[in-house]
Amino acid sequence: MSAVAEAGRAGRRGGRGGGGVRARLYGRAYNGRTLEPRDIPSWDEYYLSICEVVARRSKDPNTQIGCVIAGPAREIRSTGYNSFPRGIRDDIPERSVRPTKYLWIEHAERNAICNAARSGTSTDQCTIYVEIMPCMDCARAIVQAGIREVVVSSKRMEQYSSEYYNEHFGNSETLFAEAGVKVRRV
Question: Is 50 exceeded by the pLDDT of residue 21?
Fold first, then answer.
């Protein structure tokens, strides 16, 4: 008799504690082996790893940044990456080079906020996960969107440590502090 049939008979007979079918199938399915423990990522690691995947959608030849907005119940509300606005041609090479690209390419954070707004999804009281510290334009948008926490990748930030970036990111952190938005580097 198969394990399924045997377990089914045990369940009809009442089995142990009313859960005989489940216990027997489980034991047979794994041949008595114990399950190996595995590393389950923290929520921060989980969302930052999604940021890395989302960033791969960017057509910016130099910088690919991803962003995830998560709600208070840890559900994904929106994602974004640095890209051209909807409907704008992204196949004109001159638009992708510095300094012209700064006029044409939208940042990941504002894209995520706009994507949420476009679908009618609230960002109030949410957490935004982004690979690097937001610029001042994005920081203002984050505050205005009601986002309460910013989580930044320490690993990715290592690539952006220069006097220029330190000053700009410092301004963003000051803005967040004054607005009561928590910032964490993980």
Answer: no
Pairwise CA distance, residues 31 & 23, whole Å: 12
Active-site residue flag, 109: yes
Residues spanned by the domain of 105:
43-185
Annotated catalytic residue, options 6, 36, 45, 109: 109
pTM, entire model? 0.79
Burial class (CB in 10 A: 0-12, 13-18, 19+), 81: buried
Clarify whether residues 33 and 55 are in a common domain. no
Q: What percent of the chain has pLDDT over 70?
A: 81
Give how many domains the chain has, as a whole number. 2
Q: What is the pLDDT of residues 65-75, one digit of tens each?
A: 999 999 999 99
Q: Indicate if 31 and 116 belong to the same structural domain.
A: no
**Statement to judge: residues 32 and 57 lie in one domain:** no
